[in-house]
Structure formats: C-alpha cells, structure tokens
Amino acid sequence: MINLFIVDDEDMEREGIRSLFDWNQLGITIIGEAWNGQAALEALVDVEPDIVITDVRMPGMNGLEFASRLKRHYPNVKFIFISGYEDFDAARNAVDVSAVAYLMKPINKETLMDTIAGAIGRIQEEKHREKEEVQLKHQVEESLPLLREQLLRDILLGIERIDDERTMQRAESYGLSLPVIPTAVMIVKAEELGADREDSEPLKTIAVYRELSGMIGEETSLPVVMTREGEYVVLIPCSPILAQEDMEEHLEQTAASWVQQLQRSTGVTLAIGIALAEDGIRSCPRYYRMARTAVGRKFYSGGQNVLWHEDDEGSRDDFPILVHRSKDELEEAIIAFDTSRIEQIVKTSLQGKSMKKEQAWFVAIDLLNTALQTLAEKKELVKAAFEQEKAPWEKLMLMDTIDSLAAWVVAYIQGIAELIKKNQGNRNEHIVQTIKQWVKSEYMTDLTINSIAGRVFLAPGYVRKLFKNHTGMTLKEYIVQTRMKNASELLRQPERKVNEVALAVGYENVSYFCAVFKNFYGISPGDFKDAYQILA
Fold first, then answer.
1. In which element (H, E) is residue 233 found?
2. Are 309 and 287 within 8 A, CB to CB?
3. Where would you tag: which of 152, 222, 287, 455 has the fewest CB atoms within 10 A of its CB?
4. Cβ pair 191, 271 in contact under 8 A
C-alpha cells in the first residue's frame, strides 16, 4: 500500500480530499492529516509517507518550509502542492523539494487522480530500481572474494602482469590492496593422503582451505589463494616496525602454529614453504616459485614442516645456472620454432651439472617461466598452454631422473613453440603495422624500443625479433630511416635551417643529427640543402 498524508489548515479542504476517492481501492492508505507544517512534522516523526498533499499557505509553518524539512528526513517522499492563485507562482518556484505537481484550488478530481497516478508510478519505479541495486550490490559482494582470489592466483602464476595498468585497476575495483612493502609468500602444501586419496582428499583439502582462511585474519587482509589442489598461498605484508630477524622468527612461529592447528583439525599432513619478496607484490610471482621449491623439500627434511627458500641459496651457488644467460636465446628459439635449439638450450641448462633434484626443479621452473612469458601478451595462448598441461610445475616435480626431467621440459617448451607458430601470421603482422604507424606519427619524439614494447605489452627482446623477422630491418633502423626521410623533405624548404630540421625530427644534438644524416645519405645536411637549392 502507498502511504498518503494530507496537510491543510482548512478542515473542509482535508475532508474534501479524503472523500474524493475510495483510496483503499486505489491501493492507498491515508495515514494521517495535520492543520499546518509543524503539526505534520510532529505526526510524521516515526512514520514515513510516500505521498504528501499539502497546502502552501498555512498559519505557523507553511507548506514550502514543511516540505523542505520533511525532505531532509524522508528524501524519497513525493509532494503535491495545492494553492490559491496568489500563491501559485511561489509554489512553482519551490524546486528544491522536487514536487510532483502544483495544483490550483479548487482541486479538479481528474487532475488530482492523474497526478497521484504519476506519483505512484515514480514511487514504484524508484522502489524497483532500489531493489535491483540491492540485488546487484549483493551479487557483487558475493562474487568479490572469488574475483580477488582469481586475480591474486593469476598474478602469482604469471598470467596477469603486475606492471600492467589494467591489472592494478582490477585490483582497485575489487577492493584488493596489493602490498608494496616486503611480503612473505607462504605456501601451505598438503601431502598425498594414501590409498583412500581419491575419495577423501577433495573434502579434506577444502577443509584445509576453510580452516586456513579463518586463521589468517590477524596476519593479512589478503585472501588465501588455492593455486592448485592441495596447495594454498598466503601473502603476509611484513611489519615495518619489526627487524628482519624478528619478522622471520614471527613468520616461522606463525607457520608452525598453522601446521599444528590444521593437522589437528583436518587430519591432513602439511608443510609450509616461505620466501620473502623484497619488492612486495611485484616480486611475489618469482618468490612464489621459490617458496614452492622450498616446500617441495619436505621429502628430504624429515620432521621439518616449515622450510625457507634461503636454505637453498648456498647450494645453488655451487653450480652455474645458465638459464638467466639463455633466456633471450630460448625466447628466440621458441619464436622461430627451432625445436633442435630448444632441446640444446634445455639440456645445456639441466645436464652435466652436479645438482640436487630441487636445484634441477628450480632451473626447470625458470625455463618453463621463460617459455610461458613469450605467451604473456596473448591470454588465450596462456590458457591453451595450461589446458594442455594444467599444472606444469607440479608435473615436472614428478620426474625422478634428470634425463626424464629434461625430456619433459623439452617437450613442454616445444609444445609452446607450436602454439605460437599456429597463432602467428595476421596477429604479428598487425603488431608490426601498428608499430610502423606509431613511428611514422611520432618519429619526432623520444621513441625507444622499451617504450614501444610497453605499448603493445610485449618484451623488448620479443619486439626486436618480431620486427626484424617481418621487415628485414631492426626497429632502430626503421626509426632512423623514417626520421631521415622526413629530414630530407624539410631540408628542401629554403626557410628551414639545419638545426631546426634536427629538432623537428627528434634530434636535440645537431652534430649527432648531421652524422646520422651523412651516414644514411652519404652527404651532410648542409650540402644536401645547397645541392637541392641549386637544382631547384
């Protein structure tokens, strides 16, 4: 029902309005009436009207002042003003209360009916809109935890790039405060459950997830992230008031407490790997992999349940990791679909070294990450790669010999190369044409390969190779060529000086411009200008 309140200082006017219609049949309840604005305000302290029909001129508080005050308390109320001829213009100027209508006395029954019907329509529309907004807000609030966890998962796995502005905007829209201070990456890993694993593990791993989510509130506002079944990541921003040694001790005690509580409440055997990401969320993906390597040592650690990645650093220094020096070569081999070169790089990185199994995993993970990074600009390809092998890092840890590990990594990376080969062509041609267009329109600015690569969301090395493969010249050569062609056109203009032309095509150093021009055309800019003037 719609609640109606009537305000008029004349008893007969109020009675006349009450008797105009069968209000109940219209779905309207008259909840009260008053003889002036003050009396109406007192009557409506605890009752909200939907519609108020009020006279303008009344003793004490008039209708306009009454409406203004009531509107502050009930912002959605609809006002219908009635007034005599002399008050009509004043009433119509009262726009601050957004009245539905201003009706002149004596009231016309049909006009009032139409006005009330319009007010009811607006009320129903507003209530419907409010209901939709409440439902939408509820849906968003329900989905936010899942969206936050998914975004963090994608960041940790390298699917979302943290230097991508869109990623940061998504995090902000989800209400996710990504840490910029040193952050502990803690991986809680459930061990396999034995013979009854298939039936009981899903329920038990869900129990671990729920219990852990309820335990971390004192340490972090970030959600628990399940990166794969039985593996959960907790990111804990480090307290700036604690020394590093104290913080590490606190983290170790916290992790040990979690393991004890979770094992007692769920019956699942657990271990926690910890790595300290010095640059906050920006380095968390790398330290996530380190924490995984650390927790993977549980098999060799006996009764130790909390493991730090720093424990590996000394042994890693005992052998040369060639992966970092081979990254560019591996990217090039993948893009060129050079399967033999891929095999050679992988085997050189993994074989012929005295390394522990965990160290081999570390190298293999780095190789896989380099390969997956070549797909970073194309999310569809990343998804396709994970569809072929949903948990490559976990799969490689099942390899029990260095030879089987190397063979598996070679096959996986060659599969990525095959994906890229199938999806090149038009896409890469479009990227090259886009870069060319940028150079043609912005050659006079400080163009660099890094700035161009950032605009197409690709690695600089990838852009260099892609452009060279498609054009036969390097991107730097193309920029110089574009600048020189435009410089030659400007030098043909008699009024243009050499130093002006240099600045116009992007060179602040005139001497350097002259050297580049002469190297390109075999003649200095001044001689070129003089020769053209003679010919002209």
1. strand 231-237
2. yes
3. 455
4. yes
